[in-house]
């Protein structure tokens, strides 16, 4: 590797998806200005203000890309979902309906699907 590459500032090597992401995407996030207690809440009831904000957020995809909740064991609200230790936490339907939240988003597919406890029927 050339020595000049070792001295190059970090900004000389942008993130591979930086071209697709608006530079100021965080300023467009609906959660700007919300208290940290709502954004980093672990309980569904405490996270309702952030979840409501996410419902109308224009940049949830960028949020999920930047935070990477599964890889970082994130606790809080990101991309319209509540996360605990990097796993998506379920919002009780009654609480979601009471708060006026949209229907729960489709959960992410599991990278390791568990085998079915029922054997497939032979035809």
UniProtKB/TrEMBL annotation:
It comes from the Bacteria. Residues 102-123 are annotated as: Disordered. Pfam families: Whib. Residues 104-123 have a biased composition (Pro residues). Residues 30-88 form the 4Fe-4S Wbl-type domain. This is WhiB family transcriptional regulator. Signal peptide: none annotated.
């Amino acid at each position: 590797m050339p020595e000049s590459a070792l001295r190059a500032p970090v900004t000389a090597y942008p993130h591979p998806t930086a071209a697709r992401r608006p530079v100021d995407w965080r300023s467009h996030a609906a959660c700007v200005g919300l208290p940290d207690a709502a954004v980093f809440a672990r309980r569904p009831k405490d996270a309702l203000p952030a979840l409501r904000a996410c419902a109308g957020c224009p940049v949830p995809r960028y949020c999920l890309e930047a935070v990477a909740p599964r890889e970082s064991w994130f606790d809080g609200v990101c991309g319209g979902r509540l996360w605990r230790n990097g796993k998506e936490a379920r919002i009780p339907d009654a609480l979601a309906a009471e708060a006026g939240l949209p229907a729960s988003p489709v959960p992410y597919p599991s990278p390791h699907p568990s085998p079915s406890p029922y054997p497939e029927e032979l035809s």
